[in-house]
Amino acid sequence: MHYLPDAGRYQQMEYRRCGRSGLKLPAISLGLWHNFGDSTLLENSRNLLRHAFDRGITHFDLANNYGPPPGSAEENFGRILREDFYAYRDELIISSKAGYTMWDGPYGDWGSRKYLVSSLDQSLKRMGLEYVDIFYHHRPDPETPLEETMGALDHLVRQGKALYAAISNYPADLAQQAIAILRDLGTPCLIHQPKYSMFERTPEDGLLEVLNQGGVGSIAFSPLAGGMLTDRYLQGVPQDSRAASGSRFLNSDQLTEEKMAKVRQLNQLAADRGQKLSQMALAWVLRGDRVTSVLIGASKTSQIDDAVEMLANRQFSEQELEQIDAILV
Ligand SMILES: NC(=O)c1ccc[n+]([C@@H]2O[C@H](COP(=O)([O-])OP(=O)(O)OC[C@H]3O[C@@H](n4cnc5c(N)ncnc54)[C@H](OP(=O)(O)O)[C@@H]3O)[C@@H](O)[C@H]2O)c1
Question: Is 203 domain-assigned?
Answer without folding.
Answer: yes
